[in-house]
Every structure is written in C-alpha cells, then in structure tokens.
Automatic annotation (TrEMBL), chain A:
<keyword id="KW-0408">Iron</keyword>
<dbReference type="InterPro" id="IPR008988">
    <property type="entry name" value="Transcriptional_repressor_C"/>
</dbReference>
<dbReference type="InterPro" id="IPR038157">
    <property type="entry name" value="FeoA_core_dom"/>
</dbReference>
<dbReference type="GO" id="GO:0046914">
    <property type="term" value="F:transition metal ion binding"/>
</dbReference>
<feature type="domain" description="Ferrous iron transporter FeoA-like">
    <location>
        <begin position="9"/>
        <end position="81"/>
    </location>
</feature>
<dbReference type="Pfam" id="PF04023">
    <property type="entry name" value="FeoA"/>
</dbReference>
<dbReference type="InterPro" id="IPR052713">
    <property type="entry name" value="FeoA"/>
</dbReference>
<dbReference type="InterPro" id="IPR007167">
    <property type="entry name" value="Fe-transptr_FeoA-like"/>
</dbReference>
<protein>
    <submittedName>
        <fullName>Ferrous iron transport protein A</fullName>
    </submittedName>
</protein>
Length: 84, 709
C-alpha cells in the first residue's frame, strides 16, 4: 500500500462529497492571488461537490458559495483534515 | 449650481447590480466605451421619484455602473475597468462616492470587496440586495445590524421588486456627506513581517497606504500593467524580494478575510450564524440549497450534457428558423418599398441607386436584426438565470484543448447561424487576446448564408437525391462534409492562432456557479435593445456604404442593351465584370471562370448574393427566388471547346472556397466595431481569402492530378 503523504494532499485529490480544510495556496502569479481572494485562505472548509461530465473542471463549495476550478488550478490548494 | 455627484456602482458579479442601476436611473443611460476595448460602463442620472426630487441648486447624482468584480486585483480587462474607476488610477478621477452592492445571502465572500473599497477612503453607501432570497435561505441579515458592524449606511433592497429604492436614493443624494471617509486600513499583525516590510518599501512619499496595498497585490498577480503604476512604482515593485512578496500577499488577504469573519461574528447569532458557519463548514451554502437540486439534473454526468445540447439546439434552431419569417417580412417589405419607389420615379439611374443601392443596403443591415435580437435575448436569459456558468462548466474541458475557456463556446456555436451576432456575443470573454482568437474562429463556422450556395452548387453539378448508402444521399453527405470541414478548421485554426498570433496561457477558470434566479425580463430586453442599436449604428453605416459601392461596381459604366452581343449581359461590361474577367487567370487554377469571379465580387455584400449575381451574369431574372433555371444553365454551360464549363471537381473547389472565404462585409464591419481597429478585419479578410484560395487550389489541382476532374 502506498504511503499517503498528508503534507502533499491537494484539493484536486479530494473524493466526491469529501471536505477538508485549506492549508495554503502554493505558487505565485495572478492565479494564486485570485484563489486567495476568492476565499481559499488557511482554515477555510472546502467541499468537492461535483466533477464536470468530462471529468474536469471541479465544482467546489466554500464560504457559502459554489465555484468551479480546473484540476490544474485545484492542485495549487493544499489541504488537510479530509473528512467525509 | 453645483456639480452632480459621481457615484460608482460596484459589486461582485451576479449581485443584481445592473437591475438596481436600471431601476435607479429609470433605464436612461449612456453606454460608454473605453478606447481599444469594448468593455462597457454605463452612466445615468438618478431618476426623481415621488419620494425624492433633486434640490433646485444641485443636479441629481450620476451613477456609473461598473463591471462586476470579486476584488480590486484585476486579472481581466473588465475587472481593470472597475479597478481604474474606483481607484482613479490611470488618468481618471476617483468617484465622489461608491454605491457598493452586496448579495445579502453571501456576505462571507461579498464583504471581501467591501473591505478593499473601504480602504480607498471614499464615502460609501451599501445596498444589501436580495434580502428576500437571504431570508428564504435562512440567513437574513438586518440592515441596521450590518450598518453597525460596517460603520457605513446600509439599505436593504430587493432590486427585482423595487424594494428599498426610496431609502437608497435618499442616502445616495447625500452620499458625499457620509462619514467616515477615512481609509480604513488593516494593519499587519504579529507574524506579518513580510507584509510590513513590502508595504514599507512601496509606501513612500506621495503613495497612499491604500495605493501601496493594491500595488502590492498587483505586483504579486503580475498585473501591474493593468493598473497604470508609475515608472517609480514599477521599479520599487520590481525590487521586492519575490519570496517576501509571496508571503506578504498571503498575509494581506488573510488579514482581510479574518476581518470579514470578525464582522460576521458581530452580527446577532440567529442572523449572522448561517453566514458565518459557511466559513466553518464547507457543507453549508444556504443560498445554494435550491440550486443544488436543479444542478442535480443540469450538471449531472449524463443529463447535464443532454440538457445542454437541448438548450443549445433550441437557441440554434431559433436563430436558424424562427428568425427566418421575420427576415422574410423585412426582405418582402424592402422589395415592396423598392417597387413603390421604382413605380413612382420610373426607370432610371437615380431609381436604381435608390432601390438597388440605398434600399438594398438598408435591407442588408436590418435583415440581421431578428437574429441579433433573438441571440441576445437567449444569451441574456441564460446569463441572468445562472445557466451560462453551468454551460461553461460543462464544455470547459473541450474548449481548454483549443486554449480557450468554456465561455467561448456559445459564440462559436452561434456562428453556425450567423457570424454577426456571434461576434458581438464574444464580449463575455475576459481576455482581449482570447476574444480576438474567438472572433477570428467564428467566420469559419458554416453560417446560414452559405446554405443557398451549397444547395445551388450541389443542385447544379451533383444529383442531390442520389443514394450513396443507407439513407444518405450525395447532397446530404456533401453538405455534412462542408459543415465538418468548417468546424474542424475553426477549432484547428483557433488552436494555431492561440499558439502563434495571440499567444497566452489557457485562461484559468475560476467560475462562480451562482444560485439560479428568475431573470428580470425588462433588464434582458433593455440589453437586447442596446446591442441591436449598437449594431445598427456602428456596423450598419459601414454595411450601407459598402452596398452602395458594390452596386456602383456592378452597374457602371451603363450600357445600352442594344449594344450587347449575343448572350452578353450588361453586368459583363460593368467595372465588376471587367475585374471578374481580369481575375480569370487566378480563378482557372481553382476551376472557376470570370463569371464566378463577378459572382465573388457581388457576394462580398453577403454570400447568398452569389446566386442573384450569377443570375444577372446568365441573364436570369429572380434567380434568388427560384434557382432551378440557374442550376440548369450552370449544369449545361459549355466552354468554347464544347466541354462542360463546370465539373464536379470545380464545384467541390467552389464549395471549399466558400467554407473558408470571408465573403461578408457585414462580418468585417462588426469585427471593426468589436476590436475598435481596422487591423483585425483586414487580417481576417486577407487570411481567410488566402486560406480559401489555397484550399480550393489544393482540391482542384490534387483532384485533377488524381483524374477526378
């Protein structure tokens, strides 16, 4: 069984219906700033609601609203404390 | 008499900002454009009501409706407009006050922008909009309580129902006296050393703390050029330590969100708790409860794409066929008017100018109105209801492969009906480069004006009903191939343009899926009218002018019918006829002759005009009403040696030419309108004509070499 490194857990690896807490947004540039400003700041709870019919992008829920991100962008969001 | 107050209307997208603006101004406004781009702002005075009249010595305040934005760190041009108008950066004056529209059901995100606006230190009035929906979702917030927490006037409104308007107008009329107008800045706390040090580097003489904060964010977002920073500021920004900058922007955003949470926590528990819990519990989005049920179908793995196809088919079908009767009425009306004028004035050159030049030109413009109006009605309804975001969600994966995002899909699809409204609908695409890529792709989509040409050529040179296999006939399969060719070419060329001519990263997708709402039909209709008027005014004049010029080319010099040789028609002696004949050496390699050349000149007005122009060349009246006689003539036409003038191969070459060629001045006029420059229409005309010629050449020469001629 593969060892699951929790420090590398990112938003794109959540299963449907799972929730987690945002730890950090990695990287730099406009996309990282936009993710932060849309509310992906440490301590915020985020849930994976749905995947688009073709598997990408994702529908996420945080701060009382729904937002869609591509998997490539969700990968920038590090998470911890995954719960069902 | 004192100057009118200028009040900027700001808010997140989908908060009902435009409805509120329309109500406050009575939908009387000017649409303003920024040079070089077509992001619009709208400006209008507050309309006096029963409860409020402007004082005799002060004009009513002017409202400026800004594009919706999530923050003051712009990443696209429409957000940059909102940013510039609010901050006064880039040769603009900051507004006297701000009307901040907040979605009452989602303060946990909306308050972030509010805090950034407060930093600017402008007088601010908050419209707490959609309080009815917030109450339904069980997260109602009292305006008074929010007012106490924020320290600025807050008025509860329901823009849809006109609730709270009078109270809001009263606040706006005295907006410049709102206290406090001091910038309310969040100071770096313990552990925010990087933020403190970056701000210290930026916050020099003449740079306000608020300016230092947005400079910092714009530097981190690598978007300083959207913000109009000075040379000195750019130098200081460039000298920041990259690692410190990354840390600083994180601290700054976290600081603001911590303040949002602190403000929410101040609201009484039963009111604020639902909002506040949204932060704690990712499973809660009270305002989305009903929408999530609708999405169980509309973004379902199987039902989602099906309903998407159904919606698109409905739009496509409506533009394709519902507009048709209206277009018929317009064409018949123009024809009847022509007859009346011709009857009243008698035959003559002036009559021809009036009927075949001016009236035909007006007809060429007005005939697009049903399609434009219908497309924008549908797009408006889809946007305002919240479905457009779902459509982008469903097709984003496909569009990402071209290098665009889901928002480019609807304009491209609309291109099958008509490129004119489709090009106008690209305004929702945030990046100008991506918009131009989409605009360049659209005319390759096989529009409805190509159909008469396809049917003429297929009907003349092929046996449309000859079965090939199963239910498929020659006509159907050729038609299908042309549509496939056009679609594949549009997507392929789009991908090439995106990687060469207009390079840029695939636009990221950070797309809010807002709650579904009933659109306010009056706002939608108003937008339909704005778009249509826009087209009539800007593109219409160009189309009218070119129609008259084309009429001149096809009619002059005038010839006495007695002078014509056997089988010769007057059009051959016209300027266009001579140019057509001069073009023949270039047309032969693609299997065409000078007659088609004249047709190509005439059909620059609109593709389907090829049919009537060829009718004139062959001396057949009313060829565009019934092309059967023309088909026979084309089929039977022989060259000097007695061989058929047109072969099947030359027919296919002509079809392929029309798939690619930009034979449509109206498209060029609209591209000029939308890109605000002649550069892109010129590029479009040249590149499409070259591609069309080369493709037809390839078909005719390779086909000929293979013995298919």
């Amino acid at each position: 069984m593969a060892f699951q490194d929790d420090s590398a857990m990112t938003l794109d690896r959540l299963d449907l219906g799972q929730r987690a807490e945002v730890r950090a947004v990695t990287g730099h540039g406009s996309m990282s700033v936009r993710l932060l400003e849309m509310g992906f700041v440490p301590g915020v709870q985020v849930a994976l609601i749905k995947r688009a019919p073709l598997g990408d992008p994702l529908e996420l829920r945080l701060r009382g609203y729904h937002v869609s991100l591509r998997r490539a962008e969700a990968k920038r969001v590090q998470i911890s404390g995954v719960t069902k | 008499m004192s100057r009118a107050l200028r009040i900027a209307v700001a808010g997140n997208p989908n908060v009902g900002k435009t409805s509120l603006f329309n109500l406050l101004t009575g939908s009387r406004y000017k649409v303003g454009n920024y040079p070089g781009i077509t992001v619009e702002t709208r400006e209008g005075s507050i309309r006096p009501t029963k409860a409020w009249q402007p004082r005799a010595d002060t004009p009513a305040p002017t409202l400026v409706d800004l594009p919706g934005t999530y923050s003051l760190t712009p990443i696209s041009e429409d957000e940059a407009i909102a940013f510039r108008a609010l901050t006064g950066a880039v040769d603009q004056v900051a507004p006297d006050a701000v009307l901040l529209v907040l979605d009452a059901s989602n303060l946990a995100r909306n308050l972030y922008l509010a805090l950034q606006v407060f930093e600017l230190g402008l007088p601010c009035v908050v419209a707490l909009n959609m309080v009815d929906l917030a109450a339904d979702a069980g997260v109602a917030v009292e305006a008074k309580q929010l007012e106490a927490a924020l320290g600025v006037p807050v008025v509860a409104t329901v823009a849809r129902g006109g609730v709270g308007l009078d109270a809001l107008i009263k606040q706006l009329a005295q907006a410049d006296q709102v206290e406090p107008a001091k910038p309310r800045l969040l100071e770096p706390a313990a552990g925010h050393d990087a933020l403190r040090s970056c701000l210290a580097s930026l916050e020099v003489e003449g740079v306000s703390p608020a300016r230092a904060r947005w400079l910092l964010a714009a530097t981190a977002a690598e978007n300083l050029d959207l913000c109009g920073a000075s040379v000195d500021e750019r130098e200081r920004a460039a000298s920041l330590d990259p690692r410190e900058l990354e840390q600083a922007i994180r601290s700054l955003v976290e600081l603001r969100y911590a303040e949002v949470d602190r403000l929410l926590a101040q609201l009484p528990s039963d009111a604020g708790v639902g909002q506040h819990n949204a932060k704690r519990d990712g499973a809660l989005a009270p305002a989305m409860a009903r929408s999530a049920k609708i999405d169980a179908v509309l973004t379902h793995r199987v039902l989602g794409p099906l309903s998407f196809l159904l919606v698109m088919a409905l739009i496509f079908q409506s533009i394709f066929s519902w507009a048709d009767p209206l277009m018929g009425v317009i064409e018949a009306g123009i024809a009847a008017l022509s007859d009346v004028i011709a009857g009243a004035l008698g035959p003559g050159m002036f009559t021809d100018l009036l009927t075949e030049g001016v009236l035909a030109g007006v007809g060429n413009v007005v005939v697009f109105v049903p399609q434009i109006a219908l497309l924008f009605l549908f797009i408006g309804l889809l946007e305002d209801s919240g479905y457009m975001a779902r459509a982008a969600f469903i097709v984003d994966r496909l569009m990402a492969r071209v290098g665009l995002n889901g928002k480019a899909f609807v304009p491209l699809l609309s291109g099958y009906a008509c490129a004119i409204p489709a090009i106008m609908s690209t305004r929702t695409i945030a990046s100008f480069k991506d918009r131009v890529v989409t605009i360049l792709m659209i005319p390759f989509m096989s529009c409805s004006a190509r159909l008469p040409i396809y049917t003429l050529v297929i009907g003349s040179l092929f046996v449309a009903n000859a079965p090939v296999f199963g239910p498929f006939t020659q006509g159907g399969l050729i038609l299908l191939s042309m549509y496939l060719l056009s679609t594949v070419s549009a997507l392929g060329l789009g991908a090439i343009y995106k990687r060469t001519l207009l390079p840029g990263p695939t636009p990221p997708l950070v797309l809010e899926l807002p709650p579904y709402r009933l659109p306010r039909i009056r706002d939608t209709l108003r937008q339909v009218w704005d778009r249509t008027a826009d087209f009539l005014r800007d593109a219409g004049t160009i189309i009218l002018a070119v129609t008259i010029v084309l009429w001149g080319l096809l009619s002059f010099p005038r010839v006495d019918p007695a002078e014509l040789g056997p089988g010769e028609t007057a059009i051959e002696r016209s300027v266009a006829g001579r140019v057509g004949k001069a073009m023949e050496p270039a047309l032969e390699p693609i299997g065409q002759d000078w007659r088609i050349g004249i047709g190509l000149i005439g059909s620059f007005a609109a593709r389907e005009v090829l049919v009537s122009t060829l009718g004139l060349v062959y001396g057949i009246e009313n060829a565009d009403e019934d092309d059967a006689p023309l088909r026979e003539v084309i089929r039977d036409a022989k060259d000097e040696a007695g061989a058929p003038r047109y072969t099947r191969l030359s027919g296919i070459a002509l079809l392929v030419f029309f798939v690619y060629a930009c034979q449509c001045m109206s498209t060029l006029a609209v591209v000029r309108r939308e890109t605000r420059s002649w550069k892109w229409p010129a590029f479009m005309l040249v590149s499409m004509t070259v591609i069309a010629y080369l493709a037809a050449l390839l078909v005719f020469q390779v086909g000929g070499a293979l013995g298919l001629g």
